[in-house]
Amino acid sequence: MALLYPNVRLMTAPTPQEAALHPLTRRETDSLGDYAVPRDAWYGIQTARARDNFPISGRGPDRDFIVAHVQIKRAAAVVNRDSGWIESALADAIIVAADAIINGHHLDQFVVDRFQAGAGTSHNMNANEVIANLANVALGGERGLYHPVHPNDHVNMAQSTNDTIPTAIRLAVLAKLPRLTSAIDELAREYETLAQQERNTLKSGRTHLQDAVPMFLGQEFSGYAWTLRQCRERLDAVRPDLCEIGLGGTATGTGLNAPPDYATKVTRELARLTQEPLTAAPNLFAKMQSMADIQHLSNEVRSCALELTRIANDMRLLASGPRTGFGEIMLKPVQPGSSIMPGKVNPVMFEMLNQVCYQVIGQDAAIAAMTQAGQLELNVMMPALGSALFDAMDWLTNAVRVAAERGVAGLTVNHDRCAYYAHISVGLATLLNRHIGYAAAAEIAKESAKSGVSIRDLVLARHLMTGEAFDALLAQAARGNQDQGTG
Fold first, then answer.
1. What is 224-251 written as a DSSP string?
2. Phi/psi at 221 (nearest 5 deg)?
3. Separation in Å, CA 342 to CA 324, 325, 338
4. Which of 157, 183, 213 is the last residue of a domain?
5. Which residues belong to the active site?
6. What is the pLDDT of residues 316-335, one digit of tens each?
7. Which pLDDT score, from 0 to 100, does residue 471 have?
């Protein structure tokens, strides 16, 4: 069968004769028969099958997701042990194995592609097998024999792919959220600093990309800062919904094969482990069917991306030039801008931010499609749905932080250019409305645009106002009724 990506190799199980010639593999058996597993792998047969079945993206699972899923396995082992459902020695071995993974060991053993069988069964078994093999070796057993600890019977006890995977997705995004909001805060602080520094820098406002009434550059920057703070607040507002989990529903929400009060107990243990205010969902069926809270978070991430795209575009406009554009700000040069034009410096940080934001918007569209694709008791699109959100959050976090550190921090303002545009803008004609009326002011604006003579000079030439009075009017117009947005 031809693959869409020929560089991704489709692995097949070797024959017994081939296996004998290649001692780097061991053979395990499941309900489908024998299969070769790398001899030193901590994962087992079901993981090996899935790895070979899905050579799609070449990307393994997200690290936060791996850790979150293993935290669930650990919490389950504690509750199952305390409920008397599993021997303490076996549970303790599972807990020790889980702790090793949570602390960053054996992460390379999670090898199933992000695009895999529905619901995430392959990833769930990957975790079960790695933990079981680690536990068995610690107890004196061997990899691949699954005695005394079995991946399904012990590591997966009182669980299902169908409740652990959506819970792990929620835990992973809860881990990522503070990083994203911290990056947004950092960018907002940079703009707040600029707003203070440039609170008295007069410039021409622009609407429709045409001259508008005067304003201060600090006011423009303060608008960006306030918008970013609002983005952060909306992201934080999603957290309570994400903290309500459906762990304990097992296969369909009934809690089949789980100890009494398991959902409450395992949620409490998981909350202790993750330091998140988790609560058991009042309706486990709904929590397994619906990804609405995940979609809500994706919506807010997309909303941030939309605002960041707009701000990035503004920064590129304000820095355009240096001779033939706005040139009101000068971005810190971080790399040469052209392979052919010497001395060219481009707004690379904001070009990068734009590109990332467009990708984030695309991820949200995919998440929306997968959110509505759930059927009856389960949404089988969860592996790709989770992956899309993980990427969107990680990409945006990194892009915003870099844009703050290398794009906004260290920029300088061309005060002469700001003042020049402020004084030649035809938008200044608006200041005359109350003095000579809209029609007469429009005539002056037209004459200024046609002749190139500034509004101020035309006003003085016609003896409509003194220069001092006009300048005072300009400053008052920029300040407005209040000195808003610069603090």
1. HHHHHHHHHHHHHTTHHHHTEE-TT-TT
2. -65, -35
3. 17, 18, 7
4. 157
5. 338
6. 999 999 889 999 999 999 88
7. 83
Give the number of other Cβ atoms within 10 Å of residue 36's Cβ.
Answer: 22
389 vs 173: CA distance, rounded Å: 8
Alpha helices in 237-342 (DSSP H): 239-242, 262-274, 284-289, 292-318
pLDDT value of position 485: 47
Q: What pLDDT score does 345 carry?
A: 84
In whole angstroms, give the CA distance from residue 335 to residue 317: 19
Q: Domain holding 176: CATH number?
A: 1.20.200.10
Domain count, the chain: 3
Phi, psi at 188, each rounded to 5°: -60, -40
User: In Å, how far are 6, 50, 74, 243, 361 from 260, measured between CA atoms?
Assistant: 51, 33, 18, 22, 43
Positions in the chain short of pLDDT 50: 1-12, 485-487
Specify the pLDDT at position 427. 82
Domain contains 2: no
Confidence (pLDDT) at 478: 81
**CB neighbour class for 51 (10 Å; exposed up to 12, middle 13-18, buried from 19):** buried
**Which two structure tokens, joined as six digits, stand for 390?**
């993980």
265-310 pLDDT per residue, tens: 999 999 999 999 999 999 999 999 999 999 999 999 999 999 999 9
Q: What's residue 3's pLDDT?
A: 41
Residue 402 shares a structural domain with residue 441: no
**Quick one: 117 and 264 in the same domain?**
no
Same domain flag for 402 and 451: no
pLDDT value at residue 20: 62
Q: Which residues pair with 204 in a beta bridge?
A: 214
| Residue where the block lists tokens 């035809």 | 426
- Provide the residue range defining the domain that includes 255: 163-415
- Please give the Cα distance from 413 to 194 (Å, whole number): 10
Coil, strand or helix: which one is 210? strand
